[in-house]
Amino acid sequence: MPPIENDTGKNDLKSQIQLLIDSNQVMVFSKSYCPYCVKVKDLFKELKLEFNAMELDLIEDGTNYQDMLLEMTGQKSVPNVFINKTHVGGCDKTLQAHKDGSLQQLLCAETEAYDYDLIVIGGGSGGLACSKEAAALGKKAMVLDYVVPTPKGTTWGLGGTCVNVGCIPKKLMHQTAMLGTAIQDARKFGWEIDEKVKHNWDTMKDAVSNYIGSLNWGYRVALRDKNVNYVNAYAEFIEPHKVKATNKRGKETFYTAEKFIIATGERPRYLGIPGDKEYCITSDDLFSLPHCPGKTLVIGASYVALECGGFLAGLGLDVTVMVRSILLRGFDQEMANRAGEHMEEHGVKFLRKYVPIKVEELEAGSPGRLKVTAKSTESDEVIEGEYNTVLIAVGRDACTDKIGLDKTGVKVNPKTGKVPVSDEEQTNVPHIYAIGDILEGKWELTPVAIQAGRLLARRLYGGGKLKCDYINVPTTVFTPLEYGCCGLSEDRAIELYGQENLEVFHSLFWPLEFTVPNRDNNKCYAKIICNKLDNDRVIGFHYLGPNAGEVTQGFGTAMKCGATKEQLDNTIGIHPTCAEIFTTLEVTKSSGGDITTSGC
Amino acid sequence: MAHRLLVRRFWTLSSKDLRCLPVSSSSSFSTSLQSSRVPVLSRSLALASLRRAASFNVQDHDDFDVRVIKSELPVLVDFHAQWCGPCKILGPRLEKAVAKQSGKVTMAKVDIDDHTDLAIEYGVSAVPTVIAIRGGDVIDRFVGIKDEDELESFVSKLIGK
User: Fold this and answer.
1) Closest by alpha carbon to A120, among A156, A85, A158, A150?
2) A235: which of A140, A144, A226, B112 fits an S-S bond (Cβ 3.0–4.6 Å)?
3) Cross-chain CB nearest to B1 (options A207, A216, A476)
4) CA atoms within 13 A on the CB side of A138
5) CB atoms within 10 A of CB A148
6) pTM score of the predicted model
7) What is the C-alpha to C-alpha distance for residues A204 and A176, in angstroms, rounded to an integer?
8) For the residues A480-491, what does the mean pLDDT come to?
């Protein structure tokens, strides 16, 4: 890169350098081959100090950096050491400062000057777990949490997505729907129930909200008991070590911390078509909707879409799902399609290969009437439909664009808003970490965020070494027929290992409890993907059937222990259960053998 | 995907502490609940009604200061929540027990979600929590449900009978 001549370029470079100085407790501008630099870096290693070393000989515009450092400090040689934003100098001066104690002073002065050891931005599962762990390890920790209301005005309490508008209400409403099925089954088992069985949305919604209210309070109390300072305010970085917190009355307060953890999570994406924010709802609104949604169009085929569409249909509502291309992107496609087929057989309508282009209100009300216009993704065909409620579930966006990350230098993927981190959840700015749904290429699951947050706090403050393991994470999609999985999808396994190196064992099965009501025969399905090159180790586990979460959890442990097909075969099943199918899988997919089952 | 650990921990406590046993609300309690949900009740109106009513809803921290901490009479503070079933049973019982003392004690109702800071400050972990305050000092407290007799003796103790 040529020397920088123009002022803009110079100013950019200057602010880049200043950012490095401001955001690193110890910043060393160094050259990889310089023995004095090595000496200084060794000193910091010996003192167990976190430092950021920039090797000027290894970067393209290193000489420009050196010129600018000369301008800024009057020192051209390396190492050029800064501690807590103060210029210390080269090797001799740094060693001298260590000897006479001024280095220690510089280090301590600033640490004490921060209000907190750790500020966590976001009071979801990950943020709460991490802050409590840090406080338990004796650190002064703060959580800043604020829920920006949805376009419909919905808001909620402490605890993040999972607790308020995710896993918890979702599973409770899924349970509501399953009880409806159970009532139907019950008649076949001899229960005499009135023909007319009705569901009351308000009763369910209030019961769910009440439970969530108690959870919100429980989290608040836990923070008090663990000595975590909690402030209900929107946090924005204004400097690398300083945030501005704005509460709901608009009052601004400023806090500084030595370290930060960004755990702001994600919020539902809108379509960007006329009428979407005005008339449509998202999962953020659904669980506390003040009225029964009535005839509903679900837009999207994410797990959120299928789960919500599934339980709404289970409550007896008329549900249509509009799908642009495939179901459950990222999941095993065979399983996704089987789960979708089951929904279709149970009355959910699918509009495939359509995208909505506008939503209009025909009549206001609770619920009102909406007209949705959509066009085919394959032709010029345009269709219209009328619904009471339109639920958008086309994905979620990371909440990283309005928290002042540009003031810190934290790199964000400009396309997705996701934050890339090291395997220790550290961003490119050493004192800022990130956990949870905003991480690039990681799982968007509450227990993963909790684990990552807790382990991060232990590594930062408790001498912990363990890193969060993002491999073989079990999870479950609560579609009407639940889908649990762990490890690789068949599609991904083929990509990674090649079809010839895999053996896929599979089977349909009929849960005993479905036999008397005589429903869903040979709809449940089990599949494992084994790596032939590695002792038939199980690298993918897939289960479509009742209680998928309960079934999958234990197999997740087995896979963590490196379970092989032989070990599954040697395991004795529990009879009669669904899970036992995994101890008797015999038919390989490549054989094309019959996988329907009958009898014991 | 559930928030297992924390949820479990919370519920373990709750069953032990009667933090919030799900009890279906009975319609006879609905009026008192509604009134506690209406913060539009102006201060002056609230103060005026104080002279007659034995119980009142705390409006904010200052209100708590004036009507509870600086109260000449002993005060029972009922920390409750909308989502708490047992609170809906205890509230009316408490009001009755307080009313029986004909003006020797008052009752302050604090919704912990509307006035979280107060609840946190007074160490409320589970609801219902009832705190007895005399001359600004907490002199007694209990958590969970009590029957009418127990409440009566709790109140009597407070007014020094």
Assistant:
1) A158
2) A144
3) A476
4) 3
5) 10
6) 0.81
7) 8
8) 98
A283, HSE (Cβ side, Cα atoms, 13 Å): 31
The residue type of A533 is L
Phi, psi of A420 (to 5 degrees): -75, 135
Helices (H), A49-189: 62-73, 91-100, 102-113, 125-136, 160-165, 167-188
Half-sphere exposure of A558 toward its Cβ, with a 13 Å CA cutoff?
24
Partners of residue A588 on adjacent β-strands:
A505
145-174 in A: which are within 8 Å (CB) of B?
A: 157, 159, 162-163, 166-168, 171
Distance from C-alpha of A333 to C-alpha of A440, rounded to nearest angstrom: 22
Would you state the pLDDT for residue A94?
87
- Give CA angle at A408 (A438, A133), nearest 5°: 55
Helix (H) or strand (E) holding A219: helix A201-225
Average pLDDT over residues B51-74: 88
- Is residue B87 annotated as part of the catalytic site, yes or no? yes
Query: Residues with Cβ < 8 Å from A524, sequence gap 6 or more?
Result: A481, A508, A509, A510, A511, A514, A544, A545, A546, A578
Q: Compute the distance between CA of residue A229 and CA of residue A240 in angstroms, rounded to an integer.
A: 20
* pLDDT surpasses 60 at A123: yes
DSSP, res B126: S
pLDDT tens for each residue of B87-100? 999 999 999 999 98
Torsion sign (Cα): A319, A322, A326, A329: negative
Distances (CA, A) of A320 to A176, A372, B114: 19, 12, 39
Residue A553 touches chain B, beta carbons under 8 Å: no
Query: Is B20 considered catalytic here?
Result: no
Determine the average pLDDT of the residues in B118-144: 95
Instruction: Enumerate residues 6+ apart whose C-beta is below 8 A from A563.
Output: A537, A538, A555
CA–CA distance, A325 with A322 (Å, rounded to integer): 9
Return the sign of the alpha-carbon dihedral for residues A437, A439, A440, A441: negative
Q: Shortest CA distance to A110 belongs to which of A137, A131, A72, A82? A: A82
